[in-house]
Amino acid sequence: MLTDVLHRCGLRPWMMQAASLSSVGLCIGLWIRAKTVDQEERGNAERRALFVGLWPPTIWLIGDSLARRD
């Protein structure tokens, strides 16, 4: 049902897989940036990187569901 809606909106599996790989890069970038901030802000920056690190599997599985739909 949700995959039908996403497909009608124009999302394709390769788009979701690219977004998943991009979020891995974003997570790595945020993690590296967390090492450059001062100690008081480092905890927040690291938590932000870990939060973004949870996105890739979810986005990849949405793309996989779209691929199975086709």
What features would you describe in this structure?
There is one protein chain. This protein has four helices and no strands. It has one domain (2-69). It starts with a helix and ends with a helix. The radius of gyration is 15 Å and the shape is elongated. The protein has 70 residues and is mostly helical. Helix 1 packs across helix 4 (55-69) and helix 2 (13-34) packs antiparallel against helix 3 (39-53). The protein has helices at 2-8, 13-34, 39-53, 55-69.
- Return residue spans where pLDDT drops below 50 for at least 5 consecutive residues: none
| Count of separate DSSP helical elements | 4
Instruction: Compute the average pLDDT.
Output: 93
The portion of residues forming beta strands comes to: under 5%
How far apart the termini lie comes to 13 Å
Cα-based radius of gyration, to the nearest Å? 15 Å
Helix content: over 70%
Category from helices, strands and their pairing? mainly alpha
- Number of strand segments: 0
The global form is elongated
Order of helices and strands: HHHH
Give a short account of the largest sheet: none
Main features:
single chain; 70 residues; 0% strand
Topology (SSEs and partners):
Elements: H1 2-8, H2 13-34, H3 39-53, H4 55-69
Helix pairs in contact: 1-4, 2-3, 2-4
